[in-house]
Write a structure and sequence with these properties.
This protein is an alpha/beta fold. It has one domain: Purple Acid Phosphatase, chain A, domain 2, CATH 3.60.21. It is built from 5 helices and 11 strands, in the order βαβαβαβββαβαββββ. The strands form 2 sheets. Strands 5-6-7-8-10-9 form a 6-stranded mixed β-sheet. It has a 5-stranded mixed β-sheet with strand order 4-3-2-1-11. Strand 1, helix 1 and strand 2 form a beta-alpha-beta unit. It starts with a strand and ends with a strand.
Length: about 200
């Protein structure tokens, strides 16, 4: 399976168009959140991505309004919104978990989950799946400019315990393009570019 993955478009229609162009070679496209900026404009990039021929797995980021993302995906047959849920594509399970975990700001538009709620949802993630989260796991691909790690403990623990075959994330812009491992699971912080993975 060829996976094309990205995160954090933040209303960038040129980046979305580049992903659409590249998607002709993909079996599945994965968008790890933040299609919008400060709670608005998610439809601008998702309308472009809905034209992909391959199925598009979508989770919301902290800048997205989850209800808007879910509504858009419900009306676009090719977009599949996952939050605490899974979808199987060509025999491989994808599990999604959106938002900032835990919340680190108080803006009204910030979509977040507590570590406890995230841990509860992650119990539904099948072993050996592709885990797609907006927030990185704590300690891997989560380094901020100030040198602090700002990932999620719940996601880190799920990676250790469930051994996903791949963990794709975004959110922390300073960490775009960084990667690492938790036990046997490769972790990649994507950013708004074309990233290819073969399974």
């Amino acid at each position: 399976m060829k996976i094309l993955a990205f995160s954090d478009l933040h209303r960038d229609t040129e980046a979305a168009t580049a992903i659409l162009s590249a998607s002709s070679g993909a079996d599945v496209v994965v968008g790890a959140g933040d299609f919008a900026t400060k709670g608005s404009g998610g439809h601008e990039t998702l309308a472009i991505l809905a034209q992909c021929r391959a199925p598009v797995i979508v989770i919301h980021g902290n800048h997205d309004a989850p209800e808007e993302i879910e509504h858009i995906c419900n009306h676009a047959p090719n977009l599949h919104y996952l939050h605490g849920a899974q979808k199987t594509v060509r025999g491989i399970s994808f599990f999604g978990l959106g938002g900032e975990i835990p919340s680190r700001n108080t803006f009204s538009w910030n979509a977040s989950e507590t570590e406890a709620d995230a841990a509860s949802m992650l119990t539904n993630c099948p072993p050996n799946s592709v885990l797609v989260t907006h927030t990185p796991p704590f300690g891997v691909a989560d380094l901020q400019k100030n040198g602090n790690h700002e990932g999620s403990n719940a996601i880190r623990d799920a990676a250790k315990n469930l051994a996903p075959r791949l963990l794709l994330c975004g959110h922390i812009h300073h960490a775009w393009g960084s990667q690492g491992k938790i036990a046997s699971t490769p972790v990649h912080n994507l950013g708004p570019t074309v990233n290819w993975f073969d399974l």
